[in-house]
Design a protein that fits this description.
18 helices, globular, alpha/beta
């Protein structure tokens, strides 16, 4: 057993589908080391099965955009109050907050006033927008545990204690299968070696399904309208996020559909592996797709008022994570009005018809893995947890 002292409680907040996976890996690593710690906070059923005491489920918290947050405000504010109440009772040794910045930074401020050390894993993208929040982070966060190398220089510039732990997705990427193994897997879904598969990845939040999924469906239809000769060459796969229901997504398909969509629900990397190209709602899924070396069109649509606010606040040349990491517009990015079926369709058609362009994009995506450091992010985070208990 570890020589952990006093309280063995750790408050954890993992309120989104992507960070939920990272949180599970941390709990699993803590159990593997036989650490005498108890996690409580916001998380998933998967975290609960590992022994985390869940105060509110992450599925009920995963919303994006000003109006979407307001619509879920009752749930979110109740979770906030309950967390603070439990923190007062359990007196955790530390808090580990993952991403979800508007909620987590407000929570961190309250926890700091209660003398609870806050470790922040998966930094808010304050280097891209709302940079002024770094002043607050310096005051209330004990340590930033970041997943991109360029974040270290950013935080050091402002005097914030920071450690680069590597990106947790590096531990999740499937080992490269041979062409024969991949073709066998595709064959199980009725996909031949001659088919060009286009994966639709709309995201997992309600607002993303509402705004992004419908656009992606129409983009697939538009591809065949623009290039009817491709109808027998392309197969469209709808990659269903773990928290989404297939039957629910089917309700978004138009009644007079003239092309077939294949719904697939497996682990994200297993689904992406089936694809030759993808249409992806901006977010963690873009990095997953890039790590699998699959060219994509990055798109995003949201509530028009939220989008107008985002345009005013966001800095930087790119919003797609792969392009940010490569510091080059390797992948097309389409936001709001530009994220329309015709523009998306034309970008996908380029991948199908221009093989040199397609292979060049794949070549550049291969560079991302080496830029993200070594695997073992969860282990390094747990190292920090152990040090905090000494």
């Amino acid at each position: 057993m570890s020589n952990l002292k006093k309280s063995n409680e750790i408050l954890i907040v993992s309120a989104e589908a992507s960070s939920e996976l990272y949180a599970r890996r941390i709990i699993e690593e803590s159990k593997r080391r036989n650490l005498d710690v108890h996690f409580f906070g916001i998380g998933s059923q998967g975290m609960q099965k590992l022994g985390c005491e869940v105060i509110e489920y992450s599925e009920n918290m995963a919303v994006v955009g000003l109006w979407e947050v307001l619509a879920h405000w009752k749930t979110i504010s109740a979770a906030f109050r309950n967390l603070l109440k439990q923190a007062s009772v359990k007196k955790p040794k530390l808090a580990l907050l993952l991403d979800y910045p508007d909620f987590n930074l407000r929570l961190a401020k309250k926890l700091k006033s209660r003398n609870i050390d806050v470790y922040y894993y998966i930094s808010p993208q304050i280097w891209a927008w709302r940079t002024e929040r770094v002043k607050l982070i310096k005051k209330i966060i004990k340590k930033m545990l970041v997943v991109f190398p360029f974040e270290v220089d950013f935080y050091k510039k402002y005097g914030v204690d920071v450690s680069f732990v590597g990106h947790p997705l590096l531990d999740e990427v499937n080992s490269k299968k041979t062409a024969e193994q991949r073709n066998l897997k595709r064959f199980k879904f009725g996909i031949t070696s001659n088919d060009f598969t286009v994966g639709l990845m709309p995201g997992s939040r309600d607002s993303e399904i509402r705004y992004c999924f419908q656009t992606q469906i129409r983009a697939a239809i538009k591809i065949i309208e623009l290039k009817p000769e491709l109808k027998n060459k392309i197969k469209f796969l709808i990659l269903v996020a773990p928290t989404m229901d297939v039957e629910f997504l089917k309700t978004y398909l138009p009644g007079d559909l003239k092309i077939n969509f294949l719904f697939i629900k497996e682990t994200p990397f297993e689904m992406i592996e089936l694809c030759d190209a993808c249409i992806v709602a901006s977010g963690t899924a873009t990095l997953m797709t890039a790590l699998m070396n699959v060219p994509m069109v990055i798109m995003y649509k949201m509530n028009p008022l939220t989008a107008a606010l985002a345009r005013r606040l966001v800095k930087g040349k790119f919003f797609g994570m792969p392009n940010l990491i490569l510091n080059e517009k390797v992948l097309p990015e389409l936001f709001q009005e530009e994220a329309n079926p015709t523009f998306i369709a034309n970008e996908v058609i380029k991948y199908i018809e221009n093989n040199d362009y397609y292979l060049n994009v794949k070549s550049k995506l291969n560079l991302i893995k080496e830029k993200l450091g070594q695997s073992g992010a969860a282990s390094r985070v747990v190292d920090e947890i152990q040090k905090a208990f000494l």
